[in-house]
Design a protein that fits this description.
The protein is α+β, with helices and mostly antiparallel strands and about 140 residues long. It has 7 helices and 4 strands; from the N terminus they run βααβααβααβα. The protein has one domain: Alpha-Beta Plaits (2-Layer Sandwich), CATH 3.30.70.141. The chain has a 4-stranded antiparallel β-sheet, with helices on both faces. The chain binds inosine-5'-diphosphate and magnesium ion.
Length: about 140
Protein backbone atom coordinates (compact mmCIF):
# COMPACT_ATOMS: atom_id res chain seq x y z
CA UNK A 1 0.00 0.00 0.00
CA UNK A 2 1.44 3.32 -1.07
CA UNK A 3 0.29 6.61 -2.50
CA UNK A 4 1.68 6.90 -6.01
CA UNK A 5 1.75 9.64 -8.63
CA UNK A 6 1.25 8.72 -12.28
CA UNK A 7 1.24 10.37 -15.69
CA UNK A 8 -1.98 10.04 -17.70
CA UNK A 9 -2.55 11.59 -21.11
CA UNK A 10 -5.66 11.86 -23.26
CA UNK A 11 -4.26 11.28 -26.74
CA UNK A 12 -5.24 13.33 -29.84
CA UNK A 13 -8.08 10.92 -30.73
CA UNK A 14 -9.59 11.25 -27.25
CA UNK A 15 -9.43 15.05 -27.37
CA UNK A 16 -10.89 15.13 -30.92
CA UNK A 17 -13.72 12.82 -29.85
CA UNK A 18 -14.50 15.05 -26.82
CA UNK A 19 -13.65 12.28 -24.34
CA UNK A 20 -11.49 14.37 -21.95
CA UNK A 21 -14.39 14.72 -19.49
CA UNK A 22 -15.18 11.01 -19.73
CA UNK A 23 -11.58 10.02 -18.91
CA UNK A 24 -11.25 12.57 -16.09
CA UNK A 25 -14.65 11.53 -14.73
CA UNK A 26 -13.73 7.85 -14.58
CA UNK A 27 -10.48 8.55 -12.70
CA UNK A 28 -12.20 10.97 -10.32
CA UNK A 29 -15.07 8.54 -9.67
CA UNK A 30 -12.53 5.85 -8.81
CA UNK A 31 -11.22 8.13 -6.04
CA UNK A 32 -7.96 9.31 -7.59
CA UNK A 33 -6.85 12.94 -7.28
CA UNK A 34 -6.12 15.21 -10.23
CA UNK A 35 -2.92 17.08 -9.33
CA UNK A 36 -1.92 18.81 -12.59
CA UNK A 37 -3.39 19.24 -16.07
CA UNK A 38 -1.96 20.79 -19.22
CA UNK A 39 -3.19 20.94 -22.82
CA UNK A 40 -0.49 21.01 -25.49
CA UNK A 41 0.48 19.78 -28.92
CA UNK A 42 3.55 17.56 -28.54
CA UNK A 43 6.62 18.31 -30.68
CA UNK A 44 8.44 15.56 -32.59
CA UNK A 45 11.37 15.82 -30.16
CA UNK A 46 9.17 15.49 -27.10
CA UNK A 47 7.27 12.58 -28.66
CA UNK A 48 10.56 10.79 -29.38
CA UNK A 49 11.59 11.22 -25.76
CA UNK A 50 8.22 10.12 -24.39
CA UNK A 51 8.17 6.97 -26.54
CA UNK A 52 11.95 6.31 -26.46
CA UNK A 53 11.35 2.71 -25.29
CA UNK A 54 9.62 2.01 -28.64
CA UNK A 55 12.26 3.52 -30.96
CA UNK A 56 13.17 0.15 -32.52
CA UNK A 57 9.57 -0.98 -33.05
CA UNK A 58 8.16 -1.05 -36.61
CA UNK A 59 5.23 1.17 -35.57
CA UNK A 60 7.43 3.91 -34.04
CA UNK A 61 6.99 6.33 -36.99
CA UNK A 62 3.20 5.96 -36.93
CA UNK A 63 3.19 6.38 -33.17
CA UNK A 64 5.10 9.67 -33.38
CA UNK A 65 2.93 11.02 -36.25
CA UNK A 66 -0.21 10.15 -34.35
CA UNK A 67 0.75 11.54 -30.94
CA UNK A 68 1.86 14.85 -32.53
CA UNK A 69 -1.24 15.10 -34.80
CA UNK A 70 -3.30 17.30 -32.48
CA UNK A 71 -3.63 18.56 -28.92
CA UNK A 72 -3.36 16.19 -25.97
CA UNK A 73 -4.31 16.65 -22.32
CA UNK A 74 -1.42 15.72 -20.02
CA UNK A 75 -2.19 15.05 -16.35
CA UNK A 76 -0.67 14.05 -13.03
CA UNK A 77 -2.91 11.87 -10.87
CA UNK A 78 -2.27 10.58 -7.35
CA UNK A 79 -3.80 7.96 -5.10
CA UNK A 80 -3.37 4.56 -3.53
CA UNK A 81 -1.55 2.35 -6.09
CA UNK A 82 -2.41 4.99 -8.71
CA UNK A 83 -0.10 3.54 -11.39
CA UNK A 84 -1.66 0.08 -11.52
CA UNK A 85 -5.17 1.38 -10.75
CA UNK A 86 -5.01 3.67 -13.80
CA UNK A 87 -3.64 0.86 -16.00
CA UNK A 88 -6.59 -1.29 -14.90
CA UNK A 89 -9.12 1.46 -15.65
CA UNK A 90 -7.48 2.03 -19.08
CA UNK A 91 -7.72 -1.62 -20.17
CA UNK A 92 -5.52 -3.61 -22.54
CA UNK A 93 -3.40 -1.77 -25.12
CA UNK A 94 -5.48 -3.13 -28.02
CA UNK A 95 -9.03 -1.77 -27.57
CA UNK A 96 -10.39 -4.69 -29.58
CA UNK A 97 -9.22 -6.94 -26.74
CA UNK A 98 -9.75 -4.59 -23.79
CA UNK A 99 -12.40 -5.68 -21.29
CA UNK A 100 -15.78 -3.99 -21.18
CA UNK A 101 -15.87 -1.47 -18.33
CA UNK A 102 -12.42 -0.16 -19.16
CA UNK A 103 -11.79 3.12 -21.01
CA UNK A 104 -10.32 1.39 -24.06
CA UNK A 105 -12.79 -1.51 -23.89
CA UNK A 106 -15.79 0.80 -23.82
CA UNK A 107 -14.71 3.62 -26.09
CA UNK A 108 -12.30 2.46 -28.82
CA UNK A 109 -11.61 -0.26 -31.38
CA UNK A 110 -8.30 0.68 -33.05
CA UNK A 111 -4.84 -0.09 -31.58
CA UNK A 112 -3.20 3.21 -32.52
CA UNK A 113 -6.25 5.23 -31.45
CA UNK A 114 -6.68 3.94 -27.93
CA UNK A 115 -7.57 7.26 -26.23
CA UNK A 116 -5.22 7.25 -23.26
CA UNK A 117 -1.61 6.79 -22.20
CA UNK A 118 -0.74 5.80 -18.63
CA UNK A 119 2.64 5.20 -17.00
CA UNK A 120 3.45 1.49 -16.61
CA UNK A 121 5.84 1.66 -13.61
CA UNK A 122 7.15 4.04 -10.93
CA UNK A 123 10.25 4.74 -13.09
CA UNK A 124 8.13 5.58 -16.15
CA UNK A 125 5.86 7.76 -14.03
CA UNK A 126 8.80 9.84 -12.69
CA UNK A 127 10.34 10.16 -16.13
CA UNK A 128 7.08 11.09 -17.89
CA UNK A 129 5.94 13.53 -15.20
CA UNK A 130 9.33 15.28 -15.40
CA UNK A 131 9.10 15.44 -19.20
CA UNK A 132 5.64 17.03 -19.23
CA UNK A 133 5.63 19.11 -16.06
CA UNK A 134 9.14 20.48 -15.61
CA UNK A 135 10.11 21.12 -19.26
P1 LIG B 1 0.39 1.06 -23.59
O1 LIG B 1 -0.09 2.38 -24.17
O2 LIG B 1 -0.77 0.18 -23.22
O3 LIG B 1 1.38 1.22 -22.47
P2 LIG B 1 2.67 0.31 -25.28
O4 LIG B 1 3.08 -1.08 -25.55
O5 LIG B 1 3.50 1.13 -24.37
O6 LIG B 1 1.13 0.28 -24.78
O7 LIG B 1 2.55 1.03 -26.70
C1 LIG B 1 2.42 2.44 -26.78
C2 LIG B 1 1.33 2.77 -27.80
O8 LIG B 1 1.79 2.36 -29.08
C3 LIG B 1 0.03 2.03 -27.59
O9 LIG B 1 -0.84 2.70 -26.70
C4 LIG B 1 -0.55 1.95 -28.97
O10 LIG B 1 -1.27 3.15 -29.30
C5 LIG B 1 0.68 1.87 -29.85
N1 LIG B 1 1.00 0.49 -30.22
C6 LIG B 1 1.40 -0.52 -29.41
N2 LIG B 1 1.62 -1.65 -30.08
C7 LIG B 1 1.38 -1.36 -31.40
C8 LIG B 1 1.46 -2.12 -32.61
O11 LIG B 1 1.78 -3.31 -32.63
N3 LIG B 1 1.12 -1.44 -33.76
C9 LIG B 1 0.74 -0.14 -33.76
N4 LIG B 1 0.67 0.61 -32.64
C10 LIG B 1 0.98 0.01 -31.48
MG1 LIG C 1 3.31 1.99 -22.52
Amino acid sequence: MAIEHTFIMVKPDGVARRLVGEVVGRLESKGLTLEKMRMLTISDAMAGEHYAEHVERPFFGDLISFITSGPVVAMEWSGESAISVCRTLMGATNPAEAAPGTIRGDLATVLTENIVHGSDSPDSASRELALFFTA
